[in-house]
Amino acid sequence: MKALAASRRHRLAPVILMTLALFLTGAVYAALAPSSAQANSASADDIEEGRRLFITNCSTCHGMDAEGSDTVPSLIGVGAASVHFQVITGRMPMDADAPQAGAKPPQFNDEQARQLAAYVATLGPGPGIPGEDVVDPELGNAAEGMQLFRTNCAMCHNFVGAGGALSNGKYAPALDDSTPIEIYEAMITGPQSMPVFNNANLNEEDKRNIIAFLISQREPNPGGFNLGSIGSVSEGVWAFLVGFGLLIGAAVWIGARSS
């Protein structure tokens, strides 16, 4: 016991313990980090074309090595899914500096977006682009997705995905036109002010259920006119205008009858 206690007090003990802790942390990260399947499945020609597209269209801001700057984020380790989402939704390249990059018609087609994503994925491990079966809403449960969405997403995106305002000029976009793959990629990459929902928060089945719920909201509303699906604000305005309009009309009619 005395020998063990003496070894713990050795001046090199903290260094050895720190080295072991770093080694263990690296091993755990390597085991649990998102895979970069997109980069591995892409051909050398696609990666080279992605590099050419990057140098031509992205390096002005992100740098030739994608390391970013004081005002522009590094792309090393963001993964293929992040690049594909930003490019295919038209958020990148940005038109102008703003608090948030808004969606617009994309500058690149899907093949070019995947080539860009494949190249960036070679710079460091990160979330890969999901397969079609992973994002297929037909395989999801919309009822369970509704519960998950309203627990994790509704406070920003509205309870049916209609979007909403945030602080400092930012906003949670409406999800009416988002494709299943875009919704999934947003959940695993956390663009803008959105948090990342990894498999510890929402597993693949949970994400697919959320996608199924959002797609189901695009069907005709069985209750009739949805008033924009923005909740009590539009309903209150409608009740105010119709209610007070009827009251004013009734008062005018009564006054006309009594005169």
From TrEMBL:
Q: Which residues form the Cytochrome c domain?
A: 45-124, 140-218
| Transmembrane intervals | 236-256
Offer one Pfam family short name for this entry. Cytochrome_CBB3
Oxidoreductase among the record's keywords? Answer: no
Alphabetized InterPro entries for the sequence: bc1_cytC-su, Cyt_c-like_dom, Cyt_c-like_dom_sf, Cytochrome_c_Oxidase_Subunit
Predominant localisation class: membrane
Does Amino-acid biosynthesis appear among the keywords? no
- Alphabetized UniProt keyword annotations: Cell membrane, Electron transport, Heme, Iron, Membrane, Metal-binding, Repeat, Respiratory chain, Signal, Translocase, Transmembrane, Transmembrane helix, Transport
Q: How does it sit in the membrane?
A: Multi-pass membrane protein
Q: Name its cellular compartments.
A: Cell membrane
So what does this thing catalyse? a quinol + 2 Fe(III)-[cytochrome c](out) = a quinone + 2 Fe(II)-[cytochrome c](out) + 2 H(+)(out)
Its Enzyme Commission number(s) read 7.1.1.8
Signal sequence coordinates: 1-39
* Domain of life where this protein originates: Bacteria
Subunit relationships: The cytochrome bc1 complex is composed of a cytochrome b (QcrB), the Rieske iron-sulfur protein (QcrA) and a diheme cytochrome c (QcrC) subunit.
Name this polypeptide is given: Cytochrome bc1 complex cytochrome c subunit
